[in-house]
Every structure is written in structure tokens, then in C-alpha cells.
Amino acid sequence: MKKGLLLVLTSIMLLIIAACGTSGEGTGSDAEGENEGEASKTLRVVTDAAYAPFEYLEGDKVVGFDIDFINAVADEAGIDIKVENVGWDAVLIETEKGTSDLGVSAITINEERKKSYDFTVPYFLSTNKILVNKDSDIKSAKDLEGRVVAVQNATTGQVAIEKIVGENNPDVKKFENTNLAIMELLSGGAEAVVADNTVIEAYVENNPDKDLMVIEDPTNFEAEYYGIMFPKDSEYLEEFNTALKAILENGTYAKIYKEWFGSEPDVQILID
Ligand code: LYS
After folding, report:
1. Which of 51, 126, 186, 223 has the fewest CB atoms within 10 Å, measured from its CB?
2. Complex confidence, ipTM
3. CA 63/CA 67 separation, integer angstroms
4. How many CB atoms are located within 10 Å of the residue 5 CB?
């Protein structure tokens, strides 16, 4: 009889504990609801879609390695994004002001930019090279002294050539995008273009009729790494960093890289 009562009491107590547990969970799932609300916000990604093969227009669609890459990162993070082609100057301005949530545009991580932006870990190795006509006598960066050189404004290409010929040198012609700089070379308004190697190498390969060639100068043009760029103190930086590291390690990055460049990436140099 006594045993029976104890059993009933224990059962009641267990029921009470279980009920408390459920209501605790209830609070938990409310919080989860808020997180879901946050995650479903679509982040605005800005780019300069005149930089094949990283980002360019196919009709009115923005395509390229960077676009597949950022979609894979966002997917991994469970975050919705929308990529918008705003042009290079706006990529820099909007991401600094925070009207863009992030910028993906073959953007080099460097100390100067780190003062105004936050960057993820690196995702691509690059360097500046020189695009010239096949019959050009330009053999190195030093040969660019006294020549008219076209660059995209506010790029590391501009900084690299100005280091050699001096800032505000009128021989450095600055354009809103790299395609316009290449047009300047083709029309004879410049003798060279300084820009990221992958972009000018792809241009030469895709336009054999233009009789252009690429000169490298690792002594004067240093190795650079691209990163995803955020406004300072962005709440999204860490989530993207984690997701980026995950796709570097789980093979997704390598798959996308292979689709665009036809070879295996050196993922190790990005991770180290
Ligand atoms: N990687 C270079 C830089 O960050 C070129 C970027 C050009 C973008 N359209 O300055």
C-alpha cells in the first residue's frame, strides 16, 4: 500500500518535471524561430561584372567563378543572397557604407583595405601582370616607365604601376572597368594594361585574333589573395568564414574551380 502511494507520487513528480522541460523547450523553439527569421533575410552581394572569368554578364545574368563560389559559400552557411552588378566604384563605396552586405569581385585583401573593410580568409591566389601587343618591346614592369599604361581605377593594378612610375602620373590612364582599359590598348591609346593575371590571360586565350601577350614580373608585382569583403564589424563575417573553410575542405571549392579553370586548385596554400 505504501509502495503504491510512493509510485503515484513519483509519477506525478515526473510528470511535473516533464511539463517544465517541455515549456523550457518551448522558449527554445521561440528563439529558433527568431533565428530562422534572421536567416531568411536575403543579403545583398555587390560585384563588378566586367571581369571574366570571375564575374561577367551573360545577357543580363551575372555569371562567373566568383558567382558559383559565393553561392556555394552562402548555401553552406544557409544564408540567402542576391548578387547585383553595380560596378567597381560602387562595390567599394557601398560595402564601406554598409548599403551592401558583402562584395565579391576578385577583391584583393591588403592592409590598406583592411582599414575600411573586413575580409574572409583568402579564396584565390592572384598577381598583377602586363598585357601588351605581341610586337611590343616591353619585357618587364620597369619598361613601363615613360609609356602610357591603362588600368582599372582603384585596383591593385593601379597601385602596382604607380609604385613604379609615381602617383598621379598622367601616363597612367584609369578606367571604370578593365574591359575599357583593354579597349584602350586595342585602339592604340595605351601600350599596356596592368591587371590580374587570370583576367588578362583569359582575354588573350579567348581573343587570339587580337595579337596580344602577357608579361609577368614577379619581382615587381607581388602575390595577392582574393577575399570576400564586408563592411567593418559585419555580423555575417564569421558565418561566411566558417562556410568558406568548409567548402575548401569538403571538395566543393575544388569542383567549382575545376569547372571554370579545368585544373585542380592548390587548396593547401589557401588553408595554410
Ligand atoms: N584584384 C584587384 C583588386 O582588388 C582587381 C579587382 C578588379 C575588380 N573588377 O584591386
Report:
1. 223
2. 0.98
3. 6
4. 9
Tell whether ligand 1 has an atom less than 6 A from the beta carbon of residue 66.
no
β 42-47/80-85 pair status: parallel
For residues 45 and 177, give the distance between their C-alpha atoms in angstroms, rounded to a whole number: 18
For ligand 1, atom 10, name the residue with the nearest CA: 155
Tens of pLDDT along 52-79?
999 999 999 999 999 999 999 999 999 9
Atom of ligand 1 nearest to the CA of 113: 4
pLDDT tens-digit readout, 100-150: 999 999 999 999 999 999 999 999 999 999 999 999 999 999 999 999 999
CA of 13 to the centre of ligand 1 (A): 66
pTM strictly above 0.80: yes
Q: How far is the CA of 154 from the centre of ligand 1 (A)?
A: 8
How many C-beta neighbours within 10 Å does residue 54 have?
27
| Helical H segments across the chain, by residue range | 2-39, 65-77, 88-97, 111-114, 156-165, 178-186, 197-206, 237-249, 252-261, 267-271
Which atom in ligand 1 lies closest to the alpha carbon of residue 152? 7
For a pocket test of ligand 1, which of 93, 159, 196, 229 has the largest count of ligand atoms closer than 8 A to its C-beta?
196
Q: Is 120 near ligand 1, meaning CB less than 6 Å away?
A: no
- 199, with CB counted inside 10 A (0-12, 13-18, 19+), is buried
Backbone φ and ψ of 16, nearest 5° = -60, -45
**Ligand 1 atom 5: residue of nearest CA:** 155
Check pocket membership of 198 for ligand 1, CB cut-off 6 A. no
Length of the chain (residues) = 272
